[in-house]
Amino acid sequence: MRNGAIRAPPLYPPSFWSVFENVELGIPRTQNRVEGWHRRWETLVGAKKGVYNLISEMVKEQKQTDIRVARSVSSVVATPPKKDTEKREKGLRAIFEDRDNRDVLDYLHAIANHMQY
Question: What mean pLDDT do residues 67-74 have?
Answer without folding.
Answer: 84
